[in-house]
Design brief:
There is one protein chain. The chain folds into 3 domains: about 10-75, Archaeosine Trna-guanine Transglycosylase, Chain: A, domain 4, CATH 2.30.130; about 80-190, Transcription Regulator spoIIAA, CATH 3.30.750.80; about 215-405, Rossmann fold (3-Layer(aba) Sandwich), CATH 3.40.50. About 30% of the residues lie in helices and about 30% in strands. The chain has 11 helices and 20 strands. The longest helix is centred in the C-terminal third of the chain and has 17 residues, at about 320-335.
């Protein structure tokens, strides 16, 4: 006897949630659902109707997540199939056209919800592409996604990365592992790519994020423009991205400060990859392994002309927001003690739970408390390949302050 196909999953939601979805927000929370015609399965399409039984949105269902539906499409009814996915991918890639020339082959191709792919990102590192899933609802659809990417991008290598919160489920139910090869051969080490003509390593199998912090590219370019003749401190340096740009920009010296020897070793390798650049070859590159928070809080041993403070997120959840704002203020107050007269402080935050206004306010207050005059040069947000179209997606911000001589 043939199995009877299940009816389409249909949801009705609260009036407040209707308004939120109509505004373009991509998440429907479990406590906003008022009616389900049946129990939903992980990754299936859920159709959301308004109070008048009119189509409102369609998205990926996750019965175990507080974010019960991640919206793919809202407005007029649409059939989600192979052709739809291909068109969505072409639209996403088209938004990157003209952003990069041949000197940059490392960038974000898909940025989750803000590109219409909720809980999924795709980064390119030359001919290696890294697909990272933050939502379990994509696991049943992985073969479909890979087929779509293969048809449009023809990647030589495609690596799967998984958010920690879904790794156990992926392993037990879908036989998927973080760092698994989906296409191509496994690299024998980090892959290399170009960013603004500089060569960098990316640990695509095991590194943070998808292997590199692509989102800071525009701030790295600004640091390069400010570096000539300066002694530079790059705190929380990771693999030395800001430092390498500063060196090419003519810095006299750069100091990488990080608690991880693995990260500092990566910075040394990145400098070695770029010795053909005159500025890099001429620049003194020092590495200091230490807890950056403790190191900066100590009595300054020297002064730097350009300081970059780009710590990991100090607020992983909303409950940590107030504490994080105070921590940002203390960190930048400590950093400013190491800044020479006429120097530039670059302060960045990747904490989504701390708004740009709160972060900039904390840095400005730290500057005021030094009793030294500072000029605010500019503030920055998300890079164009990392769009942020709803509040929860807006995590990256940086402020540039110049000290009086």
């Amino acid at each position: 006897m043939e199995a009877v196909p299940m009816p389409q999953l249909r949801l009705r939601i609260s009036a407040t949630a209707e308004t939120i979805l109509r505004s373009g927000h991509p998440w429907l929370f479990a406590d906003s659902i008022r009616e389900e015609n049946r129990a939903g399965r992980l990754g299936e399409l859920a159709v959301i109707f308004d109070r008048n039984d009119r189509f409102l949105a369609i998205g990926l269902f996750d019965p175990e997540s507080p974010i019960r539906v991640r919206v793919l499409h809202a407005g007029k009814p649409s059939t989600i199939g192979t052709a739809w996915w291909q068109e969505r991918l072409q639209q996403t890639l088209a938004r990157r056209e003209g952003l990069f020339d041949a000197q940059t082959n490392g960038y974000r191709c898909i940025n989750g919800e803000s590109d219409g792919w909720p809980g999924l990102v795709l980064d390119r590192y030359d001919q290696t592409f890294v697909l990272k899933l933050y939502a379990a609802a994509w696991l049943p659809r992985l073969a479909e996604v890979v087929g779509c990417l293969r048809a449009s991008l023809h990647p030589q290598r495609l690596v799967l990365r998984l958010s920690r919160n879904i790794q156990s489920l992926a392993r037990e139910e879908w036989r998927r592992e973080d760092g698994q090869l989906l296409l191509g051969e496994e690299p024998d080490g980090p892959v290399t790519f170009l960013e603004s003509g500089l060569r960098f390593e990316a640990d695509v199998l095991h590194g943070q994020k998808t292997g590199f912090f692509l989102d800071q590219r525009e701030n790295r370019r600004l640091v390069e423009s400010l570096a000539r003749g300066r002694d530079v401190l790059n705190a929380f340096s990771f693999s030395g991205g800001f430092s390498l740009y500063a060196a090419r920009g003519g810095a006299g010296s750069v100091t990488d400060l990080d608690i991880s020897e693995h990260a500092l070793a990566g910075a040394r390798r990145n400098f070695a990859l770029n010795q053909a650049a005159p500025g890099v070859a001429a620049c003194r590159h020092d590495c200091v392994r230490a807890n950056a928070l403790e190191w900066l809080a100590a009595k300054p041993m020297r002064k730097f002309d350009l300081i970059v403070l780009d710590p990991p997120s100090l607020a992983k959840r909303e409950a940590e927001r107030t504490r994080a704002i105070g921590a940002y203020q203390r960190l930048n107050a400590d950093g400013l003690r190491w800044l020479a007269p006429g120097g530039v402080l670059v302060a960045a935050s990747c904490s989504a739970h701390v708004s740009a206004e709160e972060f900039f306010g904390a840095v400005r207050q730290a500057a005021r408390e030094t009793a030294r005059p500072f000029t605010e040069w500019q503030t920055t947000g998300h890079a164009p390949d990392h769009p942020a179209t709803f509040p929860e997606a807006q995590y990256l911000k940086a402020i540039y302050l110049r000290s009086a001589c």
